[in-house]
Amino acid sequence: MAIGYKLQIGICILLGSICLSCHTIQSKADQEKAETIIVFQPFSGFSPRSLAYLEKKLHKNFSTIVINTPIDLPHQALNSSHKRYRADSLIRFLHKKGRPNEIVIGLTKNDISMTKKGISDDYGVFGYGYCPGNACVVSTFRIKGSNKLEKLYKLTIHEIGHNLGLPHCAEKTCFMRDAKGKDHFNELTDFCQKCRKKLPQ
To answer: For the segment 64-113, what is each residue's pLDDT rounded down to a tens digit?
Structure first.
């Protein structure tokens, strides 16, 4: 009886180990197929109206959107003149907040800048993001005109495109067109067919 009891326990432990291994493999597979989650990280002073508009528009492409509590812009991201915030510093800051399958989008009303080789060490930009990666930042500071919200959406989807691995595109109506410091948002209509094919399905 004692031998039979030990044998029964051994079989249960073995079966338990097999089931645990299967569960682990399945969990990894599920993670690989997991949807992309959009995480908004508004910085202090960002318009709640703009935030609500972005959430509504992006829900057409992403089913899960998380909105974090607004926080102050990190002081260490200020440039030497204390007038602009360094976009590269901001996305490094935001990257640390991200988890697997998340894209963290920093939203600010303040001016942001980056180093543009051969032009300026403090070049003002609309937005900036890793390509590919899990973090980007967009600013409303340079957005002008009566349709600012629509332009903000196009800017945001452009930076998300970079996070998903899309480079700049030569097609004038594509969301991935390089702004080159100018406001071309009214000419953008959608991702072109070439860029859309590159997006994760």
So the answer is: 999 999 999 999 999 988 899 999 999 999 999 999 999 999 999 999 99
Name every residue whose Cβ is closer than 8 Å to that of residue 113 and which is 6 or more positions away in sequence: 79, 84, 85, 86, 87, 122, 123, 124, 125
Q: Which of 159, 192, 150 is nearest to 173 (CA)?
A: 192
**Residue 159 is which amino acid?**
E
How far apart are alpha carbons 56 and 30 in whole angstroms?
A: 27
Q: Which pLDDT does position 30 carry in this prediction?
A: 46
Task: Concatenate the DSSP letters of all residues of 37-106 into one string.
Answer: EEEEEEBTT--HHHHHHHHHHHTTT-S-EEEPPPBPPPGGGB-TTSSSEEHHHHHHHHHTT--TTEEEEE
Give the containing element (helix H, strand E) for 36. Answer: none
Cross-sheet strand order for the sheet of 135-139: 65-67, 37-42, 102-108, 135-139, 127-129
pLDDT, residue 10, reads: 42
Residue written as token pair 């959009």 = 38
Cα gap 42→64, rounded to integer Å: 17
